[in-house]
Amino acid sequence: MQHFFKQIYTLWCAIVFIGLFLLLFPFFLIIILVPAWHKHCYYLNKFWASVALFLVGIKTEICGLENLNPRLQYVFCANHFSLLDIVSFGFAPHSVVYVGKSSLAKVPLFGFMFKKLHVTVNRKSLKGRYKSLQQALEKMGNERSLVMFPEGGIMSRNIPEMTRFKDGAFRAAITKQIPLVPVTLPDNWIILPDEKIPLISRKKMRMIYHQPISTEGLTMDDVPSLKEKVFKVIAKELKKYH
């Protein structure tokens, strides 16, 4: 019986998320047509995430926003165990550019919107990863922050333990000389597991923004130590919950 109710709840969640996106798509399209307006996708993302989670009864708890200056650019680095992680950054303090896997571009309508406003990456290609990083830096400009999942996708086979981080997020922060912000997402993989046919669980979605880590004066030689520092911050926080 519990399995049946989970199926019904999952269907309701899908209807809400897809329905809201279809309602918002014309507004995303208007923003796409004017590059100077791309930063305003923040308001649509926040509305989509807030209303959708409210309608499906998932409460949110966002911690650490007081650590951030909404006028500054950041590179947000988060653990990545669930597709819900992308939705979480609808609660970012300002407009962000996502770097997501190239398969997202194949999703009808959503893929078109994502590719125009954000960046897709072929993680199997070194050249593709480099090109995507350059595109992300360009789309950030001087106003938008960057969201990257430094594991390079949902890679862990032993959740909630993370896999080793890739360099992209740290190279981006050093190139722009802007702070890195570790972000812990402790519950998303329980709410929406990474399975072929996932069933959604109703649970509070928590998001923890940690203290920004300065990259001022750092060079690419500092990437390994920076990766280790961010990894330890997120791993320590995950252990508090699991």
TrEMBL record:
User: Which pathway does it serve?
Assistant: Lipid metabolism
Q: What molecular functions are annotated in GO for this chain? A: 1-acylglycerol-3-phosphate O-acyltransferase activity
What the entry lists under InterPro entries is as follows:
Plipid/glycerol_acylTrfase
Superkingdom assignment: Bacteria
Identify the keywords attached in UniProt to this record, alphabetized: Acyltransferase, Membrane, Transferase, Transmembrane, Transmembrane helix
Provide one Gene Ontology biological process annotation.
phosphatidic acid biosynthetic process
Q: Where are the transmembrane segments?
A: 12-37
Q: Does the keyword Transferase apply?
A: yes
Q: Where is the Phospholipid/glycerol acyltransferase domain?
A: 74-188
Instruction: Name the PANTHER family on file.
Output: 1-ACYL-SN-GLYCEROL-3-PHOSPHATE ACYLTRANSFERASE
Q: What name is this protein filed under? A: Phospholipid/glycerol acyltransferase
